[in-house]
């Protein structure tokens, strides 16, 4: 019955709680009114009043303020002083009327004194009308001439080149064999295997050997198509570019070179693996009734390059080509017209500009390339240093090829050096078949061997900073796969193995 003495059904504790909340609300309202009517006070004084009252509120229900020198009054409380307000809720400030706080909210009294929310005044209203928000667009269109927009270049984040037009126009909806796609994706797996075994020397050697073999095989894959290349993503970031852009030196120089060569070939759209791609063969009949086989470069071949330039001309150290020999096909047997090989494949790729001659260049610009072969000259081949003889003249006037090499000496222009299988068998740098590009050499000097024929011997030195000559071991060129393809072409041509 004691709980119903007031006629409201409240217990004593509930009535005490209601009275306490009413007293707290009344005290907050009174302090707000006093501060609004009083003269401006400092932030420290404002903090002291609020903190002192808050301490009295938490002091076991004691409604009387604590003295300012009391230990309890000096405690730091998790409240924030506000500017005086006549509202009945002085602690609540509209978000629209706040300004940005300088720094993060501190947790101590000293920090709170330096960080106070400010209400909007007449001056801030004026500022808002003149200074528009940098986040929200203006409500009304800006009058006057429209601003001039400047083109801003995008930052290029690709590590590889931009894709070719043919690559962008590939229709990925075309059909393809999944086993062929898996063969291409296997290159991804082998690259990851090499990277994952970087710290283990034995496992890394095994992984590199498998990857090297697969690169040599990929050079002659005849199932390649645009949709397979695009589906495999080998030409994009994370594909073959990982090999020649990797910074940990996981891959040896020969694998880097082969990966770069394969990437560039596919990148330009050259997916035909045949060694004679870009070369057309024709049978002609002479006036005497003999059938003659002739070969010429196809017009418009996308992979062709001009040979009339000094330097590498986008060639890769160790790049290899087969050679063809001019012949006459009679009714009963094959008769070679001469013993000089046709270097048309090297001509196609911009390596050497002569079908048969050993020196190519332009008058006034020097020699661009030479081919080291037999020919009965007194050539000396020591790999990095060679002695190359010019051609003999019918008189004391040097031949055109000799003059070109002399100009290269005076111009200090590099010369591309190709080695032929026709070199003596005792020469360790001789390729097993065909022609091989072995880098750039400088003409450092010459001497005259025979004044009557103007025979010159040129001393040439290989430029530094190039990959080693690929003549032995696992890095040698031609590879086993290249020799197999060479044998197939000879067999189909009726020349035997």
Summarize this structure briefly.
The chain is of the alpha+beta class.
How would you portray this structure in words?
The protein has 497 residues and is an alpha+beta fold. 31% of the residues lie in helices and 16% in strands. The strands form 2 sheets. Strands 3, 6, 7, 8, 9, 10, 11 and 12 form an 8-stranded mixed β-sheet that branches. A hairpin with a 5-residue loop joins β1 and β2. The longest helix is centred in the first third of the chain and has 26 residues. The chain is elongated. The relative contact order is 0.06.
Distance between the termini: 121 Å
H/E series: HHHHHHHHHHEEEEEHEEEEHEEEH
> What percentage of residues falls in helices of 4 or more residues?
25-40%
How does the overall form come out from the CA principal axes?
elongated
Give the low-confidence spans.
Answer: 1-8, 49-83, 93-133, 149-160, 327-340
Structural class: alpha+beta
């Amino acid at each position: 019955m004691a709980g119903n003495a007031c006629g409201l059904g409240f217990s004593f504790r509930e009535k005490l709680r209601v009275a306490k909340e009413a007293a707290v609300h009344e005290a907050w309202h009174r302090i707000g009114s006093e501060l609004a009517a009083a003269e401006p006070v400092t932030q420290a004084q404002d903090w002291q009043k609020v903190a002192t009252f808050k301490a009295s509120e938490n002091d076991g229900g004691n409604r009387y303020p604590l003295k300012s020198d009391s230990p309890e009054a000096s405690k730091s409380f998790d409240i924030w002083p506000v500017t005086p307000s006549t509202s009945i809720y002085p602690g609540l400030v509209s978000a629209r009327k706040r300004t940005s706080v300088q720094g993060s909210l501190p947790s101590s009294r000293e920090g709170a004194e330096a960080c106070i929310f400010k209400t909007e005044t007449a001056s801030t209203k004026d500022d808002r009308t003149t200074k528009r928000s940098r986040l929200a667009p203006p409500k009304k269109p800006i009058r006057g001439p429209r601003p001039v927009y400047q083109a801003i270049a995008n930052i290029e984040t690709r590590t590889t080149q931009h894709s070719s037009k043919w690559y962008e126009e590939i229709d990925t909806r075309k059909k393809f064999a999944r086993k062929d796609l898996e063969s291409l994706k296997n290159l991804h797996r082998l690259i990851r295997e090499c990277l994952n075994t970087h710290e283990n020397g034995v496992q890394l050697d095994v992984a590199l050997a498998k990857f090297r073999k697969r690169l040599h095989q990929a050079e002659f894959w005849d199932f390649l198509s645009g949709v397979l290349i695009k589906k495999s993503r080998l030409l994009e970031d994370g594909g073959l570019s990982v090999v020649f852009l990797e910074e940990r030196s996981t891959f040896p120089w020969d694998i880097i070179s082969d990966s770069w060569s394969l990437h560039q070939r596919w990148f330009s759209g050259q997916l035909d693996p045949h060694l004679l791609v870009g070369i057309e063969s024709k049978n002609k009949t002479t006036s005497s009734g003999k059938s003659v086989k002739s070969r010429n470069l196809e017009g418009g071949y996308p992979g062709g390059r001009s040979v009339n330039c000094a330097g590498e001309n986008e060639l890769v150290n160790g790049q290899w080509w087969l050679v063809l020999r001019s012949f006459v096909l009679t009714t009963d047997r094959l008769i070679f017209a001469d013993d000089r090989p046709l270097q048309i494949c090297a001509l196609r790729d911009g390596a050497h500009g002569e079908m048969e001659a050993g020196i190519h260049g332009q008058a006034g610009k020097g020699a661009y390339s030479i081919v080291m072969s037999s020919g009965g000259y007194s050539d000396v081949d020591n790999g990095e240093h060679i002695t190359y003889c010019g051609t003999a003249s019918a008189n004391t006037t040097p031949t055109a090829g000799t003059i070109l090499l002399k100009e290269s000496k005076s111009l200090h222009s590099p010369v591309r050096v190709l080695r032929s299988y026709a070199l003596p068998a005792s020469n360790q740098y001789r390729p097993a078949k065909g022609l091989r590009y072995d880098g750039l050499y400088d003409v450092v000097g010459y001497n005259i061997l025979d004044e009557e024929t103007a025979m010159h011997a040129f001393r040439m030195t290989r430029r530094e900073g190039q990959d080693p000559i690929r003549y032995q071991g696992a890095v040698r060129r031609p590879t086993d796969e290249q020799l197999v393809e060479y044998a197939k072409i000879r067999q189909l041509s009726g020349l035997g193995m």
